[in-house]
Design the sequence.
């Protein structure tokens, strides 16, 4: 059992949102500002219908687009830039 006092809650180092037609607007308009407010340093937005990945980095409290990938592009994007994989692996 965990104590209920002195609890530290840390933001994740990375968030990946998988868009769907019913959640895309909420993921971008509602969630991204919340992630920024809590200092999440990296967010990936994956759109399975468009077969794209947009990667953002939080810089001075604002999201900066650091990569836009599509189809079978090679993915080597922070915070996982030490490992490369084909974006097509997500669609198969």
Sequence:
């Amino acid at each position: 059992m965990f104590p209920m006092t002195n609890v530290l809650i840390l933001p994740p180092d990375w968030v990946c949102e998988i868009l769907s037609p019913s959640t895309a607007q909420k993921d971008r308009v509602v969630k991204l500002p919340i992630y920024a407010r809590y200092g999440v340093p990296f967010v990936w937005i994956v759109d399975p219908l468009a077969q794209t990945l947009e990667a953002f980095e939080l810089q001075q409290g604002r999201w900066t687009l650091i990569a836009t990938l599509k189809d079978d592009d090679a993915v080597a994007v922070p915070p996982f830039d030490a490992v490369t994989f084909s974006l097509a692996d997500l669609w198969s």
